[in-house]
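When time allows, look over one protein, given below as sequence and tokens. The question is which stretches look regular and which look disordered:
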Amino acid sequence: ATLRCVLKSFEKFPKSLVPGEKLGASNPTKFASEMNELLKRQHCNLNNNSNSYSIDCPYVCARVVRETSYEKFVEQLRMGLVRDSQNTRIVINFLRPALIGFMKPRIIPAHIIYGMVGGHFSPVVGILEEDNEGNKLEDPLVGLFDVNHKYGTYLVPARRLYDAVITKDVFTQQSRALIFVEMMEEQ
């Protein structure tokens, strides 16, 4: 759902190329690879189709950033949101229970295990660095848009989000990550 949400958010990206709903990737590397492969395939299909808009179809790529300090994490968020807000989106992969705790389990073993190992993807929608009076916040607030309607859009302290991102995925033994999705006019 996050991949679809990100692609739909690009004004110039053809909505007809947004893939159908399906279960998403399980880690940042797979998410970025899946997006890059999907877009490469779509771009090739467009270029080989005479009824296409291949000239106007933008090129989109995803890159993963992980294993960084807290200061660099905040700077990456800041730069990604400010640098080119029309053509850059940030997706964050984090351990959700580190932010909001465990939900009431329906099936205790499966839910507890998934909660401890499963990562979650959400688009980053902004960063607040000042309070209402214009004073700089010691810990900026990061705005996340959760594609799961139960959570919606919410603010989380950057330090707490960073802690949820640097947790290790038990399957890959790598930390979760920021994923920058950038749209360019040409490859």
